[in-house]
Amino acid sequence: FYANSNLAERNFEYHATGKQLFIGFLIAVGIFILFQIFSRISPIASVLLLLALFVAIPWIIWRSLIFNMRVTSFSNVHFSFTGALKQAYINFFVYPFLLVVLIYGLPLLTAFAPLIGIPEVLATILSISMILIIPAAFYVYALIKKKNTEYIINGTRYGQGIFETDVETNKFMMINLKTLGISLLVLLGFGVLMGLFGGGMEMISTFDPEAMEQGQIPEGFIGMIAMLYLFMIVAVILIMAFSITRQRTYVYENTMLDEKISFASTLRARDFAWVMLSNMLLVIVTLGFAMPWAKVRMARLMLENTFVDTSIGFDEYITQKQDEESSLGEQIGDAFDVDVGVAL
């Protein structure tokens, strides 16, 4: 994939070895086996293991970013990641924890307020604050997206070149609100289909009441169920495609490399949704044998809709980075291999 991904007649390279990736695989398998053993011996131990893994997630993501950047190069210049572990814990642990507390903690506290002896005045305040949960959750989710995007991109280096992005929380909120609006329209459409489905079932039962009483499946019932499932699958893919492509476009147009090279995304929601849907169907129909072809299709779509401004001395810039790389000589290290996406 990397060697066949080209920009301005220059290609990417992936330098990880099978040994490095295999070690990460063995660690993952070992954790899974330990969890299975502990769950049978001691449920408490299995819960503690899950908690430990949850606490370790920011560290795994941090080491993964370092590893994946170090083993990636473009035109013989390696990428690197310089983000701090402390900030990784804030972005991938503290903020998500606050979001969970906001969504689940406040409603539970309000519901059980009379049982745990919370004063009536405080319970009333909690009840009123429930109105603010949805907008507050939208804001915190958008803030998490902003912080994670800036952490990953601003911590990425191309040789000695510095990536920079400056995104706003309210922009992600607007994308999320538009996505919510589309989701509500989809739910409305699903409700209409359910109404038609109920009416159709009633008509079928009037034509063959004996079959309904005997528990037989009426003709047309399977088709109606299949239509509902198909509608929901297509709707979910379209909603995902809209959100992902809008975020991708916004992040790319606000990202620079050394304040010289800019980026742009022309990925359209309908194209992305079509490739996702057709890939899913092909993988299912072929029992997984079409997976490589599906990956190639998705990679080609992403790359063909990713643009880099190479008009401002791009060749001279790359040559400069190659000279810096040869004088620096960075060592490649080991780490876990975990994919972390930035609006991709």
From TrEMBL:
The keyword Magnesium does not apply. InterPro entries: DUF898. This is DUF898 domain-containing protein. Keywords: Membrane, Transmembrane, Transmembrane helix. It comes from the Bacteria. The keyword Membrane applies. The chain crosses the membrane at residues 21-38, 44-67, 88-109, 121-144, 180-201, 221-242, 272-294.
